[in-house]
Specification:
Order of helices and strands: HHHHHHHEEEHEHEHEE
Number of domains: 2
Number of strands: 7
Strand content: 5-15%
Strand order of the largest sheet: 2-4-5-7-6
Low-confidence stretches: none
Bound molecules: zinc ion
Length: 255
């Protein structure tokens, strides 16, 4: 296309100055693109070193975006689900019936809507989770940030162990991203309209289940390995049941 444009310019008035101008403008545009990427790199570096909690989430987000963009444009994937989450399909295999064991007697009854969950929260039955330096709660479209106290405690312990592990290995702490928490009958119905795999008897209705995103770790593969090893250990000690989901998350029910 550039060749055609150049030919046209030459044919019409043979003025090489116009070609030079065209090349200059193209170089200018290229310069802006390079400066933009340089700006992103510097911003990431500064954020990761000054505010690791925000910087590492931002870094992971960039990796995710890069992976998605390359996948779409080049029709290749630089990271498949099992590469984001090595060995997860072997380590985290607890099926629906295993998770049910953990919530069948001790979970809350499925609640109709958010108002009902709120009521359980004001009565002190459920605890509310809020993003902090250790974990980040992504926008919840189909669930609400409430869990039973033992599940909340499990997340705090998990973050503590993972944080200690990062410190011992001289790695920056990358906050865990939680993508789904407690659902209601109403939100499960909404979810079923968008996702055929969603089931009415979702473990997320019972106040003991949440999802952690493994893709959110992006390029921070060492940190994810730390977390994954800790989850394997918790699983062995029967503290929880974990299912590897190919949609990008680990589905965890606290025992
Ligand atoms: Zn889940």
């Amino acid at each position: 296309m550039l060749k055609d444009v150049v030919m046209e310019v030459q044919n019409t008035n043979g003025n090489t100055n116009r070609i030079k101008l065209l090349i200059f403008q193209l170089m200018k545009q290229l310069g802006y693109v390079l400066m933009f990427f340089l700006f992103l790199l510097v911003l990431t570096f500064l954020l990761r070193h000054s505010v690791p909690a925000i910087g590492n989430v931002y870094y992971s987000f960039q990796c995710q975006v890069l992976n998605n963009r390359l996948t779409r444009f080049l029709n290749i994937s630089i990271a498949k689900p099992n590469e984001w989450c090595p060995k997860c399909e072997f380590n985290f295999t607890d099926d629906v019936s295993q998770h049910k064991k953990a919530y069948y007697l001790e979970g809350i009854q499925p609640q109709k809507n958010n108002q009902r969950l709120n009521r359980l929260y004001t009565k002190g039955v459920l605890k509310k989770l809020e993003s902090n330096n250790y974990f980040y709660i992504r926008d919840l479209n189909y669930s609400y940030p409430y869990l039973l106290p033992e599940a909340q405690k499990f997340i705090f312990n998990l973050c503590k162990m993972y944080s200690d592990s990062c410190a011992n290995n001289h790695l920056d702490y990358v906050p865990i991203t939680i993508t789904s928490i407690t659902r209601t009958i109403e939100s499960v119905e909404r979810l079923k309209m968008n996702n055929r795999n969603a089931i009415s008897e979702s473990a997320h209705l019972r106040g003991k289940t949440f999802d952690i995103s493994y893709t959110a770790f992006g390029c921070n593969t060492k940190q994810f390995k730390m977390l994954s090893d800790i989850l394997v250990q918790c699983r062995r000690e029967n503290q929880c049941f974990v299912k590897y989901e190919t949609n990008g998350c680990l589905h965890i029910t606290v025992n």
